[in-house]
């Protein structure tokens, strides 16, 4: 377990909301930011702010060093074999769209298949729907097991010799399920497909090793891992990225510009058109330092413990359904639930009035909601700053919600 | 933990409409059909209206959503039945104003609907309350201007 002192590293968590000390349980939507990340961004703007890769002046050099230093931190963080394999983007959505628009358009045609799963976030569905429409390829879904996991047998059945792209989320933002990415990547490769991983809910919480997973692309966002919004990463294997065309054209990404033809910079800059998200990258670098200091193994252990504790406390409440795998070892720190007879919005409002922030809705996963037979659910998600006491507050809040709506439930 | 503020949102009459929705179901005799959803949260309404000679003769709703959205739909169908399209739209505008916390014209009789005034203090829930009203406006508007 991480210590209670962790909370004091996050200035925002010191406040009261609606007359109660804030309990923030919505980190799967976006995490809060530790003091060191806020300070790194402030220090950059107060001391080094300048454009990168163009100035001859000292501030320009400093900004470039910090920006490229952050890229090296990301490469180390996910164990990329080269810093050239790390492209800064706006976030997971942009990263996946870049793969679909660049690799997808160039390599797919009618009759080819794209394979995803029924549990994907909209950001790992719609780019492929669009690509399928543009190229005439077929989009196929791997169904879930009733316990919210994927069966490798079904993965084997769905991926065929026609499959060109397999794209799967590492950790489900609804079910909390950790998917067997390494095994799926092996099946994809055996069938001649590339493996894309939506790592948005994985990178903040567990040790990611892109070489061990042997994935071809890995996408994640800074803001869910203590970094600022507006910065994300697309990792890609160098051999693939080298053959890919940029999707955004303009300044920063060019080598030589003629009147009618231009050439691109080398990796990774050919994918970073325009002035990049400099402060965002530096903030992400500081977030990575912060997470490495705690240790990803410790974070994973802490969250697994909180999820198991939450499932235990919440199962004591009559009429409460928890979605996803019952075995805490199969899941991350995400607990999605419904209270019988009380709509999740109403649950979330009652919790909010008691200072507890949870998510309610379809969690950008409408096909999954339909598969689960729910129009909406409530979700509590945990991170480094949460404690058992937070879980106790959640359980108390749920009892209040149940009592408040007992008139309706009866 | 106090639930004082919650009582401003969840008035007794709202909970009554949630528990015992009025005009739940579907008109089958070929009136106007409007489907609307709230993409940020998944609330969904299926509204059927019977409009004849500029009068809303009948209204029924079906759908899924929170207590606020479903109670508001129940109250809306109750309120517009028998009203002229003009008055129904006028009431809908007044409802929108109420959600924005604006002062209302005293001459309007809101009836049960006034119980939803507390929603204006919960910005995240305003869209829940206005869904059914937007669906009704869309329906009578398409009736007034058939394509």
Automatic annotation (TrEMBL), chain A:
Signal peptide start-end: none
GO biological process per UniProt: cysteine metabolic process
Keywords: Lyase, Pyridoxal phosphate, Transferase
Domain of life: Bacteria
Ranges for domain Aminotransferase class V: 23-394
GO function term, MF aspect, one: cysteine desulfurase activity
PANTHER family per record: CYSTEINE DESULFURASE (PTHR43586), CYSTEINE DESULFURASE 1, CHLOROPLASTIC (PTHR43586:SF8)
Protein name per Swiss-Prot or TrEMBL: Cysteine desulfurase
From TrEMBL, chain B:
SUPFAM superfamilies with a match to the protein in the record: SufE/NifU
GO MF terms held by the record: iron ion binding; iron-sulfur cluster binding
Annotated Gene3D superfamilies: 3.90.1010.10
Residue ranges of every copy of the NIF system FeS cluster assembly NifU N-terminal domain listed in the record: 10-128
Pfam families for the chain: NifU_N
GO biological-process terms attached to the record: iron-sulfur cluster assembly
The family this protein is said to belong to: Belongs to the NifU family.
Protein name: Nitrogen fixation protein NifU
């Amino acid at each position: 377990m991480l210590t209670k002192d962790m909370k004091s590293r996050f200035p925002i968590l010191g406040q009261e909301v609606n007359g109660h000390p804030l309990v923030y349980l919505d980190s799967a939507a976006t995490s809060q930011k530790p003091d060191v990340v806020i300070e790194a961004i402030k220090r950059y703007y107060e001391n080094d702010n300048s454009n990168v890769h163009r100035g001859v002046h000292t501030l320009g050099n400093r900004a470039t060093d910090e920006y490229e230093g952050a890229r090296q931190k990301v490469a180390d963080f996910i164990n990329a074999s080269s810093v050239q394999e790390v492209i800064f983007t706006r976030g997971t959505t942009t990263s996946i769209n870049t793969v679909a628009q660049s690799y997808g358009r160039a390599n797919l045609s009618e009759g080819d298949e794209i394979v995803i799963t029924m549990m994907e976030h909209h950001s790992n569905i719609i780019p492929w729907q669009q690509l399928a429409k543009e190229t005439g390829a077929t989009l196929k879904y791997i169904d879930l097991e009733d316990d919210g996991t994927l069966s490798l047998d079904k993965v084997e059945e769905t991926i065929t010799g026609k499959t060109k792209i397999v794209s799967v989320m590492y950790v489900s933002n609804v079910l909390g399920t950790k998917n067997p990415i390494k095994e799926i990547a092996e099946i994809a490769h055996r069938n001649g497909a590339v493996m894309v991983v939506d790592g948005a809910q994985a990178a903040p919480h567990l040790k990611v090793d892109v070489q061990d997973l042997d994935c071809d692309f890995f996408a994640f966002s800074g803001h869910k891992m203590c970094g600022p919004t507006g910065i994300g990463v697309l990792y890609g294997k160098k051999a693939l990225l080298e053959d890919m065309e940029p999707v955004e054209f303009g300044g920063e990404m060019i080598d030589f510009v003629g009147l009618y033809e231009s050439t691109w910079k080398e990796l990774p800059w050919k994918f970073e058109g325009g002035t990049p998200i400099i402060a965002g990258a530096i903030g992400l670098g500081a977030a990575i330092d912060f997470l490495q200091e705690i240790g990803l193994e410790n974070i994973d252990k802490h969250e697994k413990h909180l999820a198991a504790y939450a499932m235990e406390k919440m199962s004591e409440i009559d009429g409460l359904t928890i979605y996803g795998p019952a075995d805490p070892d199969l899941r991350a720190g995400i607990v999605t639930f419904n209270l019988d007879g009380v709509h999740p919005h109403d649950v979330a409002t009652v919790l909010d009035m008691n200072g507890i922030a949870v998510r309610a809705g379809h969690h950008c996963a409408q096909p999954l909601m339909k598969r689960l037979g729910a129009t909406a659910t409530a979700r509590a998600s945990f991170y480094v700053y949460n404690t058992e006491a937070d879980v106790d507050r959640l359980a108390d809040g749920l009892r209040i919600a149940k009592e408040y709506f007992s008139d309706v439930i009866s | 933990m106090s639930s004082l503020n919650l009582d401003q949102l969840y008035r007794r009459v709202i909970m009554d409409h949630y528990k015992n929705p009025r005009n739940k179901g579907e008109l089958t005799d070929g009136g106007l059909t409007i489907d609307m959803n709230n993409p940020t949260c998944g609330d969904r309404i299926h509204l059927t209206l019977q409009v004849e000679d500029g009068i809303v003769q009948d209204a029924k709703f079906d759908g899924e959503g929170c207590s606020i959205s479903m109670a508001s739909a129940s109250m809306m169908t109750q309120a517009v039945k028998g009203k002229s399209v003009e008055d129904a739209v006028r009431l809908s505008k007044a409802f929108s104003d109420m959600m924005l916390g604006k002062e209302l014209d005293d001459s309007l009789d809101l009836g049960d609907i006034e119980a939803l005034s507390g929603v204006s203090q919960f910005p995240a829930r305003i869209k829940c309350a206005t869904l059914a009203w937007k669906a009704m406006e869309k329906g009578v508007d398409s009736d007034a201007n058939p394509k």
